[in-house]
Amino acid sequence: MKASACGKIILFGEHSVVYGQPAIAVPVSGLRIYANISKGKGKIYDPPMGEVIDMADRKNPLAMAAWLAMEKAGKAGADFDIRISGDIPPYSGLGSGAAVCVAIMRAVGMWAGREFSPEELAGMSYETEKVFHGNPSGIDNTVVSYEEPVYFVRGKPIEMLRIGKPFTIVIGDTGVKGSTKEMVAHVGKLLKESPDKYNAIMGHMGEIANSAREIIEGDSPAKLGPLMDENQELLRELGVSHKSLERLIAAAKQAGALGAKLAGGGGGGNMIALANDAMPVEAALLNAGAKRVFTTMVGK
Ligand code: MEV
Q1: Whether CATH 3.30.70.890 fits 163-298
Q2: Is pLDDT of 23 > 90?
Q3: Ligand 1 test: best mutation among 8, 11, 14, most atoms within 8 Å of CB?
């Protein structure tokens, strides 16, 4: 039996969302993690991370995902093995941590004859996100569990986002590993050292996310471009960008992208570009050293 979960991109508001500002994230249904479950002895094989995890190791987030799902389904005893595969690289800002846990939970649910609701999955995967990230806002596990575009404010009821007119996003992978946990800790330190300065940046990011929401729900998504550039400028000020990201962002813009920014925790990982015409942007990204490009139509 095989279950899966999608990847995600944060269009606006990564980092500021940790501090209560609104953010917008969309699923990338074409990029997925798979969890294959079969009779076994309680092992999780995770080739993307090069790990074999014993489900008795409850501190491991993947083992924890399986246990949480077993407990919710009222199933005792891990009489199965799980094999992970898929196309969302770890440490890339595309939500691989949330996706692997949600895929495992769905697989365990199938094994136990129980289909979890998105709400149940989001609740359980928030627990595993804490192990991955330390201080997660909850946006990654929410968008991955619901597989719907979301307008997300930490601690508030989830609001699904209506996409007025579909738009094209090109995703470029720097191939550089970015640790969300480290980046979130770095921003936390800045906020402690200079609260006035960095709270103002967070507030500004929140305003951008609110303006973006209106545009996304309207019918002129091209207007999102300048907002992406503005958001990226603020992410630079937080020190979460990276030269590999800047190189791809510049290449995308030169090739006609309407706006571009990093997506997710930063420090490497993926960038996104809004494009009228995806092909020249994809070519420019590959030319500038992107390890992989992927184009997704948001709202289709
Ligand atoms: C990571 O995808 C997004 C961050 O805002 C962290 C979080 O919201 O938990 C950087």
Answers
A1: yes
A2: yes
A3: 14
Token pair for residue 122?
């989001």
Closest approach atom of ligand 1 to CA 183: 10
C-beta of 140 in contact with ligand 1 (< 6 A)? yes
The reported pLDDT for the residue numbered 65 is: 98
pLDDT at 134: 83
- Catalytic site residue 140? yes
| Ligand 1 atom at minimum distance from 263 CA | 2
**Can you tell me which atom of ligand 1 is nearest the CA of 13?**
5
- Longest pairwise C-alpha distance within the chain: 57
pTM for the model stands at 0.96
Supply the pLDDT for residue 133: 85
d(CA 193, CA 232): 22
**Domain 2-159 classified CATH 3.30.230.10?**
yes
Where are the domains positioned within the chain? 2-159, 163-298
For residues 7 and 128, the answer to whether their CB atoms sit within 8 Å is no
| Whether the CB of 97 sits within 6 Å of ligand 1 | no
278 pLDDT exceeds 90? yes
What does the block give as tokens for 138?
């909850």
Closest CA to 132 of 155, 154, 102: 102
Ligand 1 site, residue 33, Cβ cutoff 6 A: no
Q: How far is the CA of 79 from the centre of ligand 1 (A)?
A: 34
